Amino acid sequence: MPRVHPPRLLLALLAALFAAQSFAEQTDVEQLSRDMQRFGAQPEARFAPNTLAAAKALLDEARAHPDDTTLLRQAREKLDEARNTALAFQTRYTTLLALRGDLEPLLALFPDHLKYRNDRVVQYRREAERQLQQAIAHMEHGELNLSRAAADKAAANYRRAIEALLPELLDAAKHMLSRASSEGARRYALHTYALAKQKLQDIYDYVDPGKQRPLPSRPADAYRLAEYAKLLAKKARKLRRDPASFERLLDEQRAFRLKLAEMLDIDYPHDDPLADVPAERIQRGIRDLKHELEASRIEQQRELAALTRKHREQLRALREELVHASQQQLASMKDAFRAKLERETFEKRRQERIKKLFSPGEVTLLVNLDGSILLRLSALQFASGSSKIAPKYKDLLKRVKEALEVYGDRQVRIEGHTDNRGDVRMNQQLSLKRAEAVRDVLIELGVDAARLRALGYGEVRPIASNEFAKGRAMNRRIDIIIEPASTHD
Description:
Blueprint: H1 8-40, H2 49-64, H3 69-92, H4 94-109, H5 120-140, H6 144-182, H7 185-188, H8 190-207, H9 221-241, H10 244-263, H11 279-356, E1 364-367, E2 373-376, H12 394-406, E3 412-417, H13 424-444, E4 452-458, H14 469-475, E5 477-482
Parallel strand pairs: 3-4
Antiparallel strand pairs: 1-2, 2-5, 3-5
């Protein structure tokens, strides 16, 4: 069977196809990877951890099997599911998340509670965290009733932990507000002091059994605002003691605004010692910069999408061209195989025609790997030391002549062989004379002399052992070789 080499066009199309496909797939994979990283870095990602992990696993599989576009599509769908699940959890359980957010600053104010496992605040918090994780897991599985039940239990435990800390918060905030007052906060931090005082009053109203007010939001702010009011009052008093401090403060603020203006490419007179840029202009510059960055990001995404579409279109065109080239190549291969099959069938028929010319034992027909055909004239015998052909073999040689006509387009070698009895040189000359005698008879019978070539090999090419009479008889032979067509085509 001949080897079929793909045409250069087909190889070029395959290389271009793989390159375009690799670019498109890598672009999609890297874009999806960045989207996952951005979402994973956001706080709401904790409300869909298992779904996000499944999306990352699918993305890893998509990287390992770039030919399977289904995996990439499933990874993107799973990421969208994680986003939607996280958003739904936040929307559904705003109260729960607000309570959790209120507890953490309180624990930061009173960290000693976290040192003891049996502390009731720690136990409430631990149980609330466990139930929160249950609510998240049920939400991811679509078990909304179970999720709601777990969320309600978590909210109740967060509330209990906050309520257990309120007495300490009242004492601490009251004491800090008193210190702020002693620093002059009523005068120098009037607004912040008033906010802290109101927050403290809200907590008093909640713990008062007669008022039954709702749990104040962000209760830790009562202490934090009082502490900030004290800090503001202290700084204000320090500024008052130094008359130059107000000028220095204003100059520092102006220098900061000018630095921001330079960073935002806002023009101002650099040689003017009183140059200033209004805060409103800086804010507008920041907004403009944000809009430019967003527009640039959108434009880059648009260009990336256009480039991806372009390569996908090229990929589709290359696939179509590859299919067409493959079909042509397949058709060529079919034609080649069909022609080969026809040649083989034709050869078998010709060989069958030759076999029918001879009786069993007269001529042995062998087909060699190179396509040549050997006719071993087993029935043709010579007298010892003679090259004369007996008249009784004329009919055999006539049929040999008919066999050669079946392959009238090929050259023919007539080879003479002997056994190893006698002189080597004499055996070679005798084998040549016998081959020439057969050639001459075939020419007389009408075979074109230009096709025939006589060779004598003597005893050098035995086909059997010369130790036995039967082997020696087999070695004394005439072989007619019809040469392969390819040798002269």
